[in-house]
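Hello again, I could really use a second opinion on something today. I've been staring at a protein lately and its backbone has me curious. You're getting the sequence in one-letter code plus the fold written as tokens. I'd be grateful if you could look everything over and explain what you see. No rush at all, and the record is pasted right below:
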Amino acid sequence: MALSGIQIYKLLPQTNCKECGFPTCLAFAMKLAAKQVELSACPYVTEENKAQLAESSAPPIRLITLTGGAGKGAGGEVKAGNEVVMYRHEKTFYNKPGLFIRVQSAESVAAAEAYKVNYVGMDLTIDGFALEADSPTAMAETVQAVRAVTKRPLILISQNPEVLQAGVSQLPGEKPLLCGADASNWENMAALAKTCGCPLTVRAESIDGLADLTEKIKAKGVEDLVLDPMTAHLGKSLALYTQLRRLALKNTRSVGYPILSFACNATDELAAASQAIAKYAGFIVLSEFRPELLYALLVLRENIYTDPQKPIQVQPGIYEINAPKPESPVLVTTNFSITYFAVANEVEGAGLPAWLVVCDAEGMSVLTAWAAGKFDAERIAKAIRGFDVASKVSKKRVVLPGHVAVLSGELEAELPDWEIRVGPREAVDLPAFMKQALN
């Protein structure tokens, strides 16, 4: 049972030292009870009391990590869990659900492994592969074939523990997800998961069934579990996943685990996968590699799992558009992703060469950053000097966004050797401006 704020307060040192970042121990206790801070923020809580506070400080949904192979081209890891809210606007969602492709052939693995799409300056890729086999030999051979192509994390699927064991034996040092334990095989599956130290899925068609199995498996010493509700119906999935998240956030520990969604089993795979990303899957299995499907899901996932309090940003720097020459103009903008891509796409689409200096404005748009004091003449001049723009151009000419024309005089003082021009207010008007006013 989770402790209340007052109960937590009684176990804290009550010194009001403020080292945790809060004015009083009581304030820290209330935040701890609400799962909004970590117990480690208090440097003086005793070891004895830490044990009592462990349940209250633990996240409501257990963090599950799948790891892939090591070495060049390693796929790293996929994390799910540690979420603390129902809706992203309440705080944020932290661990993006992993997208796994069910293996059809070695060729499909290679194509999916090579897939990468650039979205607002980020490279988006798949997270791993799901493998299913009928026999130990087939599973071992499938794992070997996949590992020859990719090092990404894997999900191994079989109702037979011996088949899963054969797959795990080919993955030393890795942590694949074993799928899955149900009412008929949970004891053998739990024994395998405990021996190899891998996360295990728990399959049942109801919340009560899931809770019952997780408690039995936990009693066998297996803590890393993933829920598999076994439903492909969109309406039932939505209701069940939502109930599981709500119960987890109310500290129902028996269902406080990430959810595995087999979107590949649904009639409308795109709708099922999209719903699973939004509500509230931790791992999602797709039927096959289809770039058009994957692109839509990757972009949707990125949009949902961005921090609503932090705009999407691009890296500050100097960007080359259409192979600019030394005499090409220098354009200036902020590092708000939408602003950057609006400017870059218009200039690139018109076939005009230019140098684009992106200033660090903490991800704000031009007007917002200017109003907040994050985009001014001093910062623009600092960026131009810092990125050594002068060494790349023969004609020192900077084009300011039209919305901040008021900065032109100040920028002339900051950059006396440069010609300062004021461009249009909207990115769509840049090509015409560059053709008419900069030639």
Observations:
- The chain is about 35% helix and 15% strand.
- Residues 317-437 form a domain with the Rossmann fold fold (CATH 3.40.50.11600).
- The radius of gyration is 27 Å.
